[in-house]
Design a protein that fits this description.
The structure holds two protein chains of two kinds. By secondary structure, chain A is mostly helical. Chain A has helices at 3-35, 48-51, 57-90, 96-104, 111-128, 136-157, 161-170, 175-186, 188-203, 207-211, 217-225, 229-250, 257-271. The relative contact order of chain A is 0.14. Classes of the chains: A mainly alpha, B mainly alpha.
């Protein structure tokens, strides 16, 4: 590469990184700035808005509900998906493509469309079964299904499910033991991956909760913004930081380099099929 | 006989999963499609006739324009960023940090994103207060942040990183030898981009743009948090039709709008699949 072209390339790279860096970091920095403002023009920085988070019972209830939903959804989706995927690999290889395309299907259905179908179902469930906010986890599991599937598929592809389970079976293990003591420890990083992604998606979810009229964390943040913008932005920053930590952790879990790389590639491939708008 | 019995038992293992997706993925889909074409008497197209109301037509048009603008903007800016990343050290820590950051930011949307922009450039932001005191009142003709123009800016925040994520593998597939070959045959930078790299990257670029288009078309949460009044885009109209009093009297109306949205997304994803196949053929 000639010297002048290399210099031009360097200038282009620096300008791009600086300008887009400002565009991406600016809004996050200004959220911090906004949430630490005092009352009045030239008052000093204060953490009052952050301290006031606990004084809004509705907000606290929303935070608790979203955390519960995150836990229930991620465990639920793993409990249903892991045995199914293992079983299909062992006994029903013909069904594998079917399970895969079903699991990836939510990537092509916008959440705002799904919620139109959920609406009468949840009305029925509310009168006949339960109107608890935790029933939302049934809908959320559909949203996280593609991401959980891809993460688990990468984990299962890295081990020899058939040999492992046949070895365990020949030593007298029942299916439950095979699952819990042979398969699960071997795909622990994939489980962690799927779990972290599910938690991050559920904590940021607004579309379904808002349209089914359930007050989760994001819905409460929006309704609080009408009365106290500082506090609601403080909570938004906190939830954002939490999601950042989860998603950054994702790029570090997974033991060996190869597994990490495969996980990352799967995640990118999943993004590359996401027509649904996600939680955006 | 034994084989037959075992086969039927094997299928039971897939029942919990299939049962769940039947209830929470297929049933909602059936409810939407059946509801869009159903009336008290039987089949009808009247729900779709209602779509000709002026505010729905204008919402559909605005949605398409918003998606086209943010897809084009996100694709161009994202492609520049992708190229800046791809020309760096492929094993460097800088690249790893940037690609992880894009993975995080592509997911970053909804309420938090809307609030971040309100805090950064909204009418109460430090930036606006400072600039308007110095004769740079960028809301002189109205607060455009809470309008379609605001959405166009805010959507770029997730469109650009999304573009980087899905376009980077294609740009990585470009081999330096191709450039050397072009140069040894006497071609300059323009020739290289016009006749070699450009045509090779074009399907991947167009495909990624389509994905961004669909993503912005389907996005709801950011717009709902940013725009308080009215429903200038289709997802907000769908939401109004589900939750409002009027909508409860016309259950088929929201479903017909949902069908329109899903038909557009299906067309876009079909085109995308075609372009993906072309990309896969050239760049391995």
């Amino acid at each position: 590469m000639s010297r002048s072209r290399r210099a031009k390339l360097q200038v282009f790279r620096v300008v791009t990184f600086v300008l887009l860096g400002a565009f991406f970091l600016g809004p996050i920095w200004f959220m911090f700035e906004f949430s630490t403002r005092g009352i009045g023009e030239n008052s000093p920085r204060t953490l009052d808005a952050w301290k006031a988070i606990g004084t809004y019972p509705d907000l606290v209830a929303g935070i608790v509900a979203s955390l519960e939903l995150a836990v229930i959804t991620s465990i639920g989706v793993l409990v249903v998906l892991v045995p199914t995927m293992v079983w299909v690999r062992l006994r029903l290889p013909r069904l594998r493509r079917v399970i895969e395309s079903i699991s990836l299907l939510p990537l092509t259905i916008p959440a705002i469309v799904l919620v139109v179908g959920f609406s009468p179902m949840y009305q029925w469930m509310g009168t006949n079964f339960s109107d608890s906010i935790l029933t939302l986890s049934l809908a959320y599991a559909i949203l996280v299904l593609p991401y959980a599937y891809r993460a688990l598929d990468a984990g299962l592809a890295a081990i020899d499910v058939k040999t492992l389970s046949e070895a365990a079976r020949s030593l007298g293990a029942d299916w439950f033991t095979v699952m819990l003591r042979v398969i699960v420890p071997n795909i622990s990083s994939a489980l962690l991956n799927a779990g972290l992604l599910s938690v991050a998606l559920v904590l940021g979810e607004y579309t379904i909760a808002n349209n089914l009229l359930y007050p989760n964390l994001q819905v409460e943040i929006v309704s609080l913004a009408r009365t106290n913008a500082g506090v609601s932005i403080a909570v938004a920053v906190a939830s954002l930081l939490f999601a950042f930590v989860l998603l950054v952790a994702l790029s570090f879990v997974g033991g060996q380099r190869g597994v990490r790389r495969r996980n990352r590639e799967r995640l990118v491939q999943t993004f590359a099929r996401d027509f649904s708008g996600g939680t955006r | 006989m034994v084989g037959g019995r075992r086969l039927s038992l094997d299928w039971i293992g897939a029942v919990p999963f299939l049962g769940y997706v039947a209830l929470f993925l297929f049933l909602p889909t059936v409810i939407i499609i059946a509801g869009a074409f159903a009336s008290e008497g039987g089949l009808t197209l009247s729900n779709f006739a209602n779509l000709s109301r002026p505010y729905i037509i204008s919402a559909i048009i605005s949605s398409v324009i918003l998606s086209a603008v943010t897809a084009a903007g996100g694709a161009v800016l994202g492609a520049l960023l992708t190229y800046a990343i791809a020309t760096g050290n492929p094993r460097g820590i800088f690249r790893r940090v940037l690609t992880s950051a894009c993975g995080v930011l592509a997911q970053f949307g909804g309420v938090t994103l809307a609030f971040a922009f309100i805090a950064a450039i909204g009418p109460a932001s430090a930036l606006y207060v400072y600039l308007s005191q110095h004769h740079l009142d960028y809301y002189g003709s109205g607060v455009w942040l809470y309008d379609l123009r605001g959405l166009e800016l805010v959507y770029l925040y997730f469109q650009i990183p999304l573009m980087v994520l899905i376009f980077l593998p294609a740009v990585d597939g470009i081999k330096p030898q191709w450039r050397e070959a072009t140069e040894s045959l006497g071609g300059g930078t323009w020739t290289y981009w016009r006749h070699v790299a450009g045509p090779l990257l074009a399907p991947a670029f167009l495909g990624s743009t389509l994905l961004l288009f669909a993503n912005s078309l389907s996005a709801y949460a950011t717009a709902a948090a940013l725009i308080n009044q009215g429903g200038p885009i289709l997802p907000l109209q769908i939401s109004n039709a589900i939750t409002s009093e009027v909508g409860l009297h016309e259950p088929g109306f929201a479903k017909a709008q949902a069908v329109v949205l899903i038909v557009i997304v299906a067309i876009v994803s079909g085109l995308y699949a075609v372009l993906q196949r072309r990309t896969a053929r050239w760049l391995q």
